[in-house]
Design brief:
Shape of chain B: globular
Strand content of chain B: 15-25%
Radius of gyration of chain C: 38 Å
Largest sheet of chain B: 5 strands, parallel
Radius of gyration of chain B: 13 Å
CATH class of the largest domain in chain C: Alpha Beta
Number of strands of chain C: 35
Oligomer: heterotrimer
CATH superfamily of the largest domain in chain C: Histidine kinase-like ATPase, C-terminal domain
Helix content of chain B: 40-55%
C-alpha cells in the first residue's frame, strides 16, 4: 500500500469528517469523496474508441453497463505509456453517466476532518488545480481532493 | 333479510375511479361479491358468463352506453328480469323516463352516500 | 372509506383525469374546426360530465363546479342552442386550464386549494343560458355545511322524495289513481327542494304544494306526504334538526326564503340536457387492453436486453463447439428470445402523435394571441417509436413549433404584403427512414436570413468573418444551435429564433439524434430531426479493421465484396482517392482505418495468407459508397446503447454495444461515414471551423475533376462516368473520320474535349460513357480528384459548346462539361432513339422543367431538347404555377422535389387540384430517392419518380409516360 492511512489523524478527529477513497496517479495521492465512488475494479478489458479525446481510454463493460474509461494520467498531464493495461478503475457517475477513472493504485478509505482541508495552493500546476477541490497535508504527503465534475466536465470536445 | 349480501353484483363504469367508489360503497353496505366492467359491451359479455343478482351501471360510457346496455339486457330472455340500477349525474326527468321505459329498475344520482345507495337498492331488491 | 384508501382513490382519480384532460385539449381544438361533429362533441361532453360526476364523491367542489359549468356550455352546444365559436372554445379551454390547475394543486397538496371560480363559472353560465348571469355564487355544487349538502345533495333529496312518494302511495286510499303522477310529483318535489336550497331557477317548493292543493289534494294528504318526506330524510341519516328545517320549506304558510326571487318563467331554467347522442362504435374489434406500469415495461426491456446478450454469448460458445447436444435447444432459445424481444419492443412503441397532442392547442392559442392565421398540418402521426424517445422529443418539438408560430409565420398583414396567402402553414411530419425516425417541423414563414445569422455569429464571437467565408450557407445556418448564439439582447428581438435552440439540440443529441436547420429567406424554415432507434435492438454486421471490431447497422449495407490483394479487381485509384467499380458504377471508397485514424497493421494479411480486404457497399439516401475493412464477421443482434457524452461529437459512431463475448464495440454511423467519403480536404477545413458534423447538402454531387488542354480544371458528375480507363492511344485505330479503340469486345469512339477525334498518341486517362451497347471515350490529360461538393453553377456556358457552366469546386473555378453534348457529337442518335419510338418528330412534346438548381437545369434542358422535346424552364414552384397559367397546356411536367418555397410535393398537389392541369403527368426529380419519398410523391400526385443524376432513366420514363398517356387517351376516345 503506497498510501499510509493516517490513523492518528482520523482518530483524534472530533469535528465533522469526510471520507475519501484514496488513489495514486503517477506517484501523487488523490482522494475522491467516498459517496461519489460506485465501484473499484482491477485492470479491465478496455475497447479503444478511435478519434476520442486523448484522455478517453475507451469503453468497458461493467456488468452490462457501458462505462467510459478516463486515463487519469493523461487527464493530469502525466506520462501514460503502458498504463492502461494494468490500471485500476474507480467507477464514478457524472450527469447520470458512468465513468471509470483509470489510476495506478487504489488505497484505503481515509476519514479526514473537514476543518483540516485547505484551499488549493495557487502554486499547484494548472492542470491539477483545475480538477482539485482542496488539499490535505498528511504526514508524509499531500492528498489532493478531486472534484469528479471538474475531472469529467471538460472532457467533451463538443462544438 | 330478504337480500343476500353474498350475491354477485356487476358494476359498470368506464372511469376507474367511479368503479372503486361504487365498490367501496357496496362493501360498506355489506355486499362482498362485486365484479367490474368498463363499458356496456364488456358488461354484456360478463353478464352472459355469470349469473348476477344486480347490475349497477353508469349511463354515460363509451363505446356502449348504459342505456344501450339496458336495452340489450332487457332484450335478452336470460337477463330480462335482472335488477338494473342506472347511475346518472343529474336528475333529468327525460333520462329517467327513457330509462324506465327501457326497463330500468331504478336510477341513482351522483354523488351518493352509502345510505342513499342502500335506500335505492331497497326499492329494487326489497328490504335488507 | 379509510383515509389511506381515500388517498389512493384520489391518486387514481388524478391520474385518470389527467389522461382525460390531455385528450380534451386537442379534441376541443378539433371541435373548432369541425363544429358539427356530433361524435367529437359527445366525447368532449362526456369527459367533462364524468369529471363532474366523480368530483362529487371526492368532495372537490371547485373542480365539480367548473366542470359542471363547462359541461352545461357543451350541453347547450350539443343541443344546438349554441354555436361553436372561438369564444365558446376559448372559454371552455379556460375552464379546462382551471381544472388542470386544480388537478395539479390536488396532486401536490392532496386537497383543493382555496379560491374562487365565480368569474369563470358565471362567464360559462352566461354562455350556457344565453342570458345575463343570475345572482352570483349559486353554483349547484354541494357546498360543505349547507343544508342542501346535509340533506344528501341532489341524490339524497331525489331518494328521499322517491321513498316518501312510494310510502305515501301505500297509505292513501286513492293511491292507485295517483300512481302515474307519482314520478312527476317526485321530480317536482326534488326540484322544489333544489330551488329552495340551492336557489337554482325553477318552481319553488311552496308552489309545488299549492299546485297539489289546486289539483284536489287535501290538507291531510299533504300532511301525510310531509310526514313521509320527513321519515325518508331521517332514514337517509339526515339529523332531526335538518329534517325539521327541510320540512319547514314545505309549509305553504311560511314566507319563501328571502334570497330566492321566484323566476318569472318557471321553465326557463338551464337548458335540459338530452340523453347523450349515440356514438359510433369506435371500439368494434378493439383488442382487450390492460394497464401496465411503465416501470414494469422498463424493467422488462432491461431484462430482455440482458437476455439477448446472454443468448448471443451462448450462440458464440456454441459456434466454437461444433456439434453439441445444446445446439437444438439453444436454437429454440434463440428463436424465442427474438420473438420475446420483438414483443417487448412492441409494448414500448407509441405513435408519435402522442407527443403532438398539445400542439394544436398551442398553435391555436398563439394564433389568437399573435393575431396570425396559422394552419398546423400533422403528417405521419401514427409513426411509432419507443416511448422513451417519444418523451425526449416532446419538449424540443413543442419548442420548435412554438418558434415557428411565434417567429416564423408572419402576421396576416405582413404575409399579404409579401404576396403570400394569409394563412401560414406549419407542417409537422414523421416517418421511418432506414432505422431512423425523421421528424420535420417546417413553416412557410419569413425564414431566417443567413445574413442575420452571420452578423450574430460574428457579434457573439462564435466565428470570424474569414472563417464564415469558407462555409456554405447550410453550415452557417447550423450556428443557431450553438450555445451563446442567442444572447440576452437577442431574446427580445424579432429574430429571437435562436432562443433555446442549443437546449433543443442537446436534448436531441442526448438520445443520439441529429438536428439540422434549413431556412430560405422569405420562404420559410425547416428543422429536420433524425433520431436513431437508440434503445432498439438492431441487426449489425461485425467488421474488423486494424485489429479492432465495429458494428455496421445491417440496414445500410447493400452488399459485401471480397477483394483479393493479388488481383484487386475493380479497385482503382484516382489521384490517391480509391474508387471501386461495381458493375456499371464507380463507387467512391473510403478506408475505415483512414477515417478512424487507426494504425495500419498487416495482421490481417499475415493471418489470411494472401491478403484480402472487404468492401462493405453501403447506402445512405441515394448515395452509394464502399467502406474498406480488413475482415467481416457474422451479423449479430445488438442492443444499441447511446454513446458517451465525451465522444458524441465523433460523427463516425452512432452508438455502442456489448457483443456476445462481453466486449464493448462501437456502432458505426453510415451517415457519418458518408460524410467522410465526401469530405475533400477543403471541406474538412470548413468542417473544423464549423465544428458540427457536415451533413450532405441536398445537391451535393460527386464530381470527377480532370485537366485537359488549356484552361482551368473541368468536371463531370461521377455518376455519369461508367468507367475510368487509361490507354496508350498509339494502339487506337482510325475508322473513317473517327478514332476508335478496341475495348471490351467492341469499338469505342474516342474524342477530345474539343469534340474532335482524339490524337492517336501517348498514354491518357479515358472517361468511358456507356449506354447499352454503345460507348464513348472522352480522352483527357489528367484526372485530378473526385470531390463531393454542393454544386452551384455560376455561369451558363451558352457560348462554349460542351460546357454547362462553371462551379467553384475545391476552391477553383471549374468548368462542368455537358456530357450530352459529347455523346451527341459521337452519335447524333444518342438519346433520341426511344423518344422517336414513342412519337413522331413532327409533334414535339411540351415539357415544363421545374428545377431550382442551375446545375441540373443546365444538365437536363439540353438533353431534353436534344431528345426532341420542347422545354420550358421554371426556376421554382411558384414560377411553374405562373407559367402553367400563362402558357396553358404542357404534355408533361418534370419537377424537382426539394425547392425553397413551394416544394415539389406542394406543386404537385396544387396542379392536381387545378381542373385544367390535373390531367398532366408530373415526374418527380430528386437527388435522394427512397421508398418513403416515392410513396409520398405518388400520394401527392406524381406519376413517376426519377433520380436526378440518371438522365437516361428520365428519358425512358418520359417516353413511357407519354406513350401510355397517349394510348390511354386513345382508349378513352
Amino acid at each position: 500500500m503506497s498510501i499510509v492511512a493516517d490513523n492518528n489523524l482520523s482518530d483524534t478527529t472530533t469535528g465533522a469528517a469526510d471520507d475519501y477513497v484514496t488513489m495514486s496517479v503517477g506517484g501523487q495521492a488523490f482522494g475522491i469523496p467516498v459517496l461519489n465512488v460506485r465501484d473499484v475494479l482491477g485492470p479491465q478489458n478496455i475497447t479503444r474508441v478511435p478519434l476520442a479525446p486523448d484522455e478517453v481510454a475507451g469503453s468497458l463493460n461493467l456488468r452490462g453497463r457501458i462505462v467510459t474509461a478516463i486515463n487519469m494520467r493523461k487527464r493530469l498531464g502525466l506520462p501514460a505509456d503502458d498504463f492502461v493495461a494494468k490500471a485500476m478503475a474507480v467507477v464514478v457517475e457524472h450527469d447520470d453517466e458512468p465513468f471509470s477513472l483509470l489510476v495506478d493504485e487504489v488505497g484505503e478509505v481515509l476519514s479526514l476532518p473537514a476543518q483540516r482541508r485547505e484551499a488549493v495552493p495557487a502554486t499547484l500546476d494548472t492542470r491539477w488545480r483545475d480538477v482539485a477541490q482542496g488539499i490535505y497535508r498528511l504526514d508524509d504527503r499531500l492528498l489532493i481532493v478531486l472534484g469528479v465534475a471538474d475531472v469529467l466536465g471538460s472532457i467533451r470536445a463538443d462544438a | 333479510m330478504a337480500v343476500d349480501l353474498k350475491m354477485p353484483i356487476l358494476i359498470v363504469d368506464d372511469y376507474r375511479t367511479m368503479l372503486r367508489i361504487v365498490r367501496n360503497l357496496l362493501n360498506k353496505i355489506g355486499f362482498t361479491d362485486i365484479d367490474e366492467a368498463t363499458d356496456g359491451k364488456d358488461a354484456l359479455e360478463k353478464l352472459r358468463k355469470r349469473t348476477y343478482g344486480l347490475v349497477i351501471s353508469d349511463w354515460n360510457m363509451q363505446p356502449m352506453t348504459g342505456y344501450e346496455l339496458l336495452k340489450e339486457v332487457r332484450g335478452d330472455a336470460a337477463l330480462s328480469s335482472l335488477p338494473f340500477v342506472m347511475v346518472t349525474a343529474e336528475s333529468k326527468a327525460e333520462n329517467v323516463v327513457a330509462a324506465r321505459q327501457a326497463g330500468v329498475n331504478n336510477y341513482i344520482i351522483k354523488p351518493f352516500s352509502a345510505e342513499i345507495l342502500k335506500a335505492k337498492l331497497k326499492t329494487v331488491l326489497g328490504d335488507f | 372509506m379509510g383515509h389511506a384508501d381515500m388517498d389512493d382513490l384520489l391518486k387514481e382519480f388524478l391520474a385518470e383525469t389527467r389522461e382525460a384532460l390531455d385528450v380534451l385539449d386537442s379534441e376541443l381544438v378539433e371541435l373548432e374546426q369541425r363544429p358539427g361533429d356530433p361524435a367529437l362533441l359527445g366525447s368532449i361532453f362526456r369527459i367533462m360530465h364524468t369529471i363532474k360526476g366523480t368530483c362529487g364523491f371526492l368532495g372537490l367542489p371547485r373542480l365539480e363546479t367548473v366542470a359542471h359549468a363547462a359541461e352545461d356550455v357543451l350541453g347547450r352546444v350539443r343541443d344546438g342552442g349554441l354555436e361553436v365559436s372561438p369564444e365558446v372554445v376559448s372559454l371552455v379551454l379556460a375552464a379546462l386550464d382551471r381544472i388542470k390547475e386544480l388537478v395539479a394543486d390536488l396532486g401536490a397538496s392532496g386537497s383543493e386549494p382555496a379560491g374562487s371560480d365565480d368569474e369563470l363559472t358565471s362567464a360559462l353560465r352566461v354562455l350556457a343560458s344565453g342570458e345575463a348571469p343570475p345572482v352570483a355564487s349559486e353554483a349547484p355544487a354541494v357546498r360543505p355545511g349547507t343544508l342542501y349538502e346535509r340533506a344528501g345533495g341532489a341524490s339524497g333529496i331525489d331518494t328521499a322524495c322517491e321513498i316518501a312518494c312510494a310510502a305515501f302511495l301505500e297509505k292513501v286510499a286513492q293511491g292507485d289513481a295517483l300512481a302515474p303522477d307519482m314520478l312527476r310529483l317526485q321530480f317536482a318535489l326534488a326540484g322544489g327542494f333544489a330551488v329552495a336550497l340551492q336557489k337554482t331557477p325553477g318552481i319553488d317548493i311552496a308552489d309545488v304544494l299549492t299546485c297539489l292543493a289546486d289539483n284536489g289534494w287535501t290538507e291531510s294528504d299533504i300532511g301525510t306526504l310531509r310526514g313521509e318526506i320527513g321519515k325518508a330524510f331521517a332514514s337517509l341519516a339526515v339529523n332531526a334538526e335538518d329534517v325539521t328545517a327541510l320540512l319547514g320549506l314545505l309549509s305553504r304558510e311560511e314566507p319563501k326564503p328571502a334570497a330566492a326571487p321566484a323566476p318569472a318563467a318557471p321553465k326557463a331554467g338551464r337548458p335540459e340536457t338530452a340523453p347523450p347522442a349515440e356514438r359510433r362504435d369506435a371500439a368494434a374489434g378493439q383488442a382487450e387492453t390492460l394497464r401496465v406500469n411503465i416501470n414494469v415495461l422498463e424493467d422488462l426491456m432491461t431484462m430482455v436486453s440482458e437476455l439477448v446478450l446472454t443468448r448471443n454469448q451462448l450462440l458464440q460458445i456454441l459456434r466454437g463447439c461444433g456439434d453439441s447436444p445444446f445446439g437444438p435447444p439453444l436454437q429454440r432459445l434463440n428463436q424465442v428470445t427474438t420473438e420475446l424481444q420483438e414483443s417487448v419492443m412492441m409494448t414500448r412503441m407509441q405513435p408519435i402523435g402522442n407527443a403532438w397532442g398539445k400542439l394544436p392547442r398551442l398553435v391555436r392559442d398563439l394564433t389568437q394571441e399573435l393575431d396570425k392565421k396559422i394552419e398546423l398540418i400533422m403528417l405521419g402521426a401514427d409513426t411509432e417509436l419507443d416511448r422513451q424517445i417519444l418523451e425526449s422529443i416532446r419538449d424540443p418539438l413543442t419548442h420548435m413549433v412554438r418558434n415557428s408560430a411565434d417567429h416564423g409565420i408572419e402576421t396576416v398583414g405582413e404575409r399579404l404584403a409579401a404576396g403570400k396567402p394569409e394563412h401560414g402553414t406549419i407542417e409537422l411530419s414523421a416517418r421511418h427512414e432506414g432505422g431512423h425516425i425523421v421528424v420535420q417541423v417546417s413553416d412557410n414563414g419569413r425564414g431566417l436570413p443567413t445574413a442575420r445569422i452571420r452578423e450574430k455569429v460574428v457579434a457573439n464571437g462564435l466565428a470570424t468573418e474569414s472563417q464564415l467565408e469558407t462555409m456554405t450557407e447550410q453550415q452557417i445556418q447550423q450556428f443557431i444551435f450553438r450555445p451563446g448564439f442567442s444572447t440576452a439582447a437577442a431574446v427580445t428581438s424579432v429574430s429571437g429564433r435562436g432562443v433555446g435552440m442549443d437546449v433543443v439540440r442537446s436534448n436531441i443529441e442526448k438520445i443520439g439524434g441529429i438536428i439540422e436547420f434549413q431556412s430560405t429567406e422569405g420562404a420559410g424554415s425547416r428543422f429536420v430531426i433524425k433520431i436513431p432507434l437508440t434503445l432498439a435492438i438492431v441487426s449489425a454486421l461485425i467488421v474488423e479493421c486494424a485489429g479492432e471490431r465495429f458494428a455496421m447497422p445491417q440496414n445500410s449495407v447493400i452488399e459485401l465484396v471480397r477483394i483479393s490483394h493479388t488481383s484487386e479487381k475493380g479497385l482503382e485509384s484516382i489521384n490517391g482517392r480509391p474508387v471501386y467499380r461495381l458493375r456499371d458504377r464507380l463507387l467512391p471508397l473510403v478506408s475505415l482505418a483512414e477515417i478512424l485514424d487507426l494504425p495500419r497493421t498487416d495482421a490481417a494479411e499475415e493471418e489470411d495468407g494472401p491478403g484480402s480486404t472487404y468492401v462493405v457497399v453501403s447506402q445512405v439516401g441515394a448515395f452509394v459508397f464502399g467502406i474498406i475493412v480488413d475482415k467481416v464477421f457474422d451479423t449479430e443482434e445488438i442492443v444499441v446503447k447511446p454513446v458517451s457524452r465525451t465522444i458524441r461529437h465523433i460523427p463516425s459512431f452512432s452508438g455502442t454495444t456489448i457483443l456476445g463475448d462481453g466486449r464493448v464495440i462501437m456502432i458505426l454511423d453510415p451517415n457519418g461515414l458518408a460524410t467522410a467519403v465526401s469530405a475533400a480536404p477543403h471541406v474538412e477545413a470548413t468542417q473544423q471551423a464549423d465544428g458540427s458534423h457536415q451533413v450532405r447538402g441536398r445537391d451535393a454531387v460527386s464530381m470527377l475533376v480532370f485537366q485537359t488542354g488549356d484552361g482551368g480544371p473541368k468536371a463531370v458528375p461521377l455518376s455519369l462516368v461508367a468507367r475510368l480507363e487509361e490507354a496508350d492511344l498509339s494502339t487506337a485505330e482510325q475508322a473513317g473520320a473517327r478514332t476508335v479503340l478496341q475495348y471490351r469486345g467492341g469499338l469505342m469512339p474516342l474524342i477530345g474535349l474539343d469534340s474532335q477525334p482524339a490524337a492517336r498518341s501517348g498514354k491518357h486517362p479515358i472517361l468511358v460513357f456507356v449506354d447499352g451497347h454503345r460507348m464513348l471515350g472522352l480522352v483527357v490529360d489528367r484526372v485530378i480528384d473526385i470531390i463531393e461538393a454542393p454544386l452551384d453553377l455560376q455561369l451558363a456556358g451558352g457560348s462554349r459548346p460542351g460546357i454547362l457552366g462553371s462551379a467553384i469546386i475545391a476552391g477553383a473555378t471549374t468548368d462542368v462539361i455537358d456530357t450530352v453534348h459529347y455523346l451527341r457529337q459521337s452519335d447524333p442518335d444518342w438519346f433520341s432513339v426511344e423518344t422517336e419510338k414513342a412519337f413522331g418528330e413532327e409533334d414535339s412534346r411540351n415539357v415544363l422543367l421545374v428545377e431550382d438548381s442551375a446545375f441540373f437545369r443546365n444538365l437536363l434542358m439540353p438533353m431534353l431538347t436534344l431528345a426532341g422535346y420542347h422545354v420550358t424552364v421554371a426556376e421554382h414552384g411558384e414560377a411553374a404555377i405562373e407559367i402553367c397559367k400563362d402558357h396553358g397546356r404542357f404534355d408533361i411536367i418534370v419537377s424537382d422535389i426539394e425547392m425553397p418555397g413551394l416544394s415539389g410535393f406542394d406543386l404537385a398537389r396544387m396542379l392536381k387540384s387545378d381542373a385544367q392541369m390535373k390531367g398532366v403527368p408530373i415526374i418527380a426529380l430528386s437527388s435522394h430517392a427512397n421508398p418513403k419519398d416515392i410513396e409520398r410523391g405518388m400520394s401527392a400526385g406524381f406519376t413517376d419518380y426519377v433520380t436526378k443524376l440518371d438522365p437516361k432513366a428520365l428519358l425512358s420514363v418520359l417516353s413511357r409516360v407519354l406513350s401510355s398517356d397517349e394510348s390511354a387517351t386513345e382508349i378513352a376516345a
